[in-house]
Amino acid sequence: MAIDSSTFSWLPDHHRHVAYTLAHVDKLIGELAGILFSYLDDGPFKFANQNWNDRSYVVLRDVRALPESVPRIFADATTQLRAAIEHTIYTQVEHELGTTAQNADFDGRGIEMPAHLEEQAFAKWSNDSRRKLIGSLQPGSTLHARIRSLQPFLSEDPERHPMRVLAEYTNFAKHRSPSIANVGIGPVIPDFESEGLNVAAGAGSRLRPAKVGDVVASGPRGVLVPLSICPNIAVQQPHTQDWNVLMHELNNVAEWVRRTAIPTLITGSSDVAALPPGLDLRVAHEDFSSALLAANRTTSFERNQRRIMAHGVRDGLADVLSAGDNPRVEYEAALTWARTLDDADVLARMSVLEKVAGAGDLAEAERLVGAIVQEVLESAPLDAS
User: Fold this and answer.
1) 115, 198, 314, 377: most buried, per Cβ within 10 A?
2) What value does the CA radius of gyration of the chain take, rounded to a whole number of Å?
3) Can you say whether the dihedral through the CA atoms of 261, 263, 268, 270 is positive or negative?
4) What confidence tier does 149 reach under pLDDT thresholds 50, 70, 90?
5) The last residue of a domain, from among 245, 265, 286
6) Is residue 90 part of a domain?
7) 3-state class (DSSP) for residue 194
């Protein structure tokens, strides 16, 4: 899609503030992603092998606590997401009034975004005495219809509707404590199948906090099977008690607010160009349209996913290039080279090798692999001797 100044013409001047709020949320998500990346890279678990009768068990010996910043940044981000919605409604009401709520002698506390599970409850909200005098929030008005269209009771699963989830997280953080987050055991993947090997039941699907003493896997005594044990950082929904992968939970809500809630409140439809998440808040923007056009369109969540993928690919890339009985490049040299590449370059090189693996043209495969090997050799420091 071509991006020009008309792409975001759906956002009127009086709603510019929401673009900055969404960019602030994306920055918080990026900060949180960086903290979790470092935490996971250092390894949150320590394991012990224990034998009992004829079986061996892999048991959690230690679980590193999450940094206390994690639940608090999560709470900050969800609070700002709800603020983006509430501020949009408040601004629209005042825009339609042509003055401030205070000058109109309205109780500003009544201008809010509800999250109701039943239509009767929403009707009661609409008829509240604080809102009966505000025409923009009364049934029959355009804004009221848009607010109604975003209500949980209209979805197949109201308890898990993004607005319901967002309201519960922010209410919990405001009135009780920061969101409850923890690290749990994710997928447990053996390097190969082995008779009698059992991995933790439901480890990949039922998230819960990991505890010292948890059995991760068991198998016949004396049989060695390497395991890949993946941690999951999870957050608990206050109302359902479900544990969900924290970064995915936050991204899902953030994308719903950015792509659905905000456009719907302003235009009545989500079928518009979503506001870019990467608006630079460190500088003052005098030309708002140019600032939007220059903003990064990749979310912090997407960049973090790419970083995680590239982190795992670097070792694999070195393995592939140094494979065989007589490799043209040593593993350590290939790994050192791979670590100098940024995430996009690592993924691009691995993509080339994946194409080589599926290609039938041996000459072309040799050319592509040779070009990458040459990169590795040219990057190696010269022998001082």
Assistant:
1) 115
2) 26
3) negative
4) very high
5) 245
6) yes
7) coil
